[in-house]
Design goal:
Strand order of the largest sheet: 7-6-5-8-9-13-12
Radius of gyration: 19 Å
Number of helices: 9
CATH architecture: 3-Layer(aba) Sandwich
Order of helices and strands: HHEEHEEHEHEHEEHEEEHEHE
Number of domains: 1
CATH topology: Rossmann fold
Distance between the termini: 36 Å
Shape: globular
Structural class: alpha/beta
Helix content: 25-40%
CATH class: Alpha Beta
Length: 321
Amino acid sequence: MNKCDYLAELPTPHKEEILRRKKEHTRHLNSQKKGILRYRDLYDSVNHLKTDRLDFSKDVVQIGSADEISESEHEKVYNVMQGFKPWRKGPFGVFGIEIDAEWRSERKWNRVLPALPSLKNKVIADIGCSNGYYMFRMSDHKPKYVIGFEPYLHHYFTFKTLNSFAGINNLFIELFGVEDIGLFEGSFDVVFLMGILYHRISPFEVLREVRKAMCPGGTLIVESQGIPGDMPIALFPEERYAKVPGTYFVPTAACLKNWMLRAGFSDVVIFDNHPMSSKEQRQTEWMDFESYSDFIDPQDPSLTAEGYPAPIRIFIKGINK
C-alpha cells in the first residue's frame, strides 16, 4: 500500500485521527474476508507488472502497451480487468486492452477543462474517485498530490492495480468517504466533488464540511445530477430516482448555486448544464448491467422510469473566500 507521504505536509490538526483510521483500514484490507480477497487477489496477481509508457493527456487513459508483456501476462491482465467489472468510469487502455466503461468520462472531463484552475503543484482531493480515471487525467497537469476518497473496495483495488502498473507516486487513494472530509481541515487547494451530492441526506452540510477542508482561495468543482427548471428547488423522490436508491435531493442548477453560496463559497459560476443521454452513459462489454436507457420512461424520454423529470448534469464551481 502507498505510504502516506502527503500527510506530514498537510496543515490539518487531525493527523492522529487520520492515522488511526488508516490503521483500521489497513487491518481491514489485510483480513481474510471473502469480499476483500476477491479484489485483493486480483491486485496481487499482477502488481509486479510495470510500465513507463503512459499517456494521460487524451480521452483514453493509456497505461502500457501490448508489446511490453508476454502473451500469458496479457491474458492474466485481461482476466484481472474482467474481474474488476463493472467498469463505471473510463475509457482506459491497459497494455493494449481497450476498456470501454459505462460512462464516457472524457466528456465530463472535457466540460470541466475550460473552468479548471491551475493544478500545478496543488494539493487536490477527488471525492468519490472510483477507479481513478479523473486522478490520472489530473496527473497530466502536474499537481503536488491528488488524494482520492473512495470507500468501496471494488473501486479501491481497481485504482491500486492500475497505478501499480503506472507507478505515479503522487496519486493516493484512501478508504475514506465524503463524511471524512472534515478531518482534512484547511488542506486542499482544489476539491472535485463529482456525482456525490444527490446521494447525501444533507447536501448543504456536505458543502460546508468540504469548505472547511479547503485552503483560503481554494476552488471547489461540483458536478451533480439535477432536474431542469429555473426555480431554486430540489426534487426529493419517494423511493428511487431513475431506479437508483440512495438518491435524496436532486436540485435545479439555481438550487445548487444557492447551496454553494449559503455554504460560504464566492464567485459561484454554473459553467455547464446539459441533459443526460445514453450517448454518455450506456451498457458496454465492460458494464453489462442496466444503464441510462433502462432508467428512463420508454414512452417519454423527458421522464424517469418513476415519472419524475429526467436528469440533467450540472457543473458549477466556487471559491473558498
